[in-house]
Write a structure and sequence with these properties.
Number of domains: 1
Radius of gyration: 15 Å
Distance between the termini: 37 Å
Order of helices and strands: HHEE
Mean pLDDT: 80
Shape: globular
Structural class: alpha+beta
Strand content: 5-15%
Largest sheet: 2 strands, antiparallel
Length: 70
């Protein structure tokens, strides 16, 4: 992005010790065969968050179940 816009966007959206509500959205490139990769990535992300947040929740969605499920 010209003129440093990307840097400003990254600064504005970073997670800090003052962040209170954060959402990470993960999706596979190939929905039909990538679900297991998303679940593995979610597990890794939760491991990284351990010790840095008081609570985390995971919700899964897919075309067959568009409603959020835990």
């Amino acid at each position: 992005m010209p003129g440093g816009t990307q840097s400003r966007c990254c600064h504005r959206t970073r997670v800090t010790e003052n962040s209170t509500h954060i959402a990470f959205v993960l999706e596979p490139l190939h929905a039909a065969r990538g679900g297991h990769l998303v679940k593995a990535a979610v597990g890794e992300l939760q491991d990284l968050l351990t010790g840095h947040c008081a609570h985390s929740t995971v919700h899964y969605r897919n075309p067959a179940r568009p409603q959020v499920t835990s």
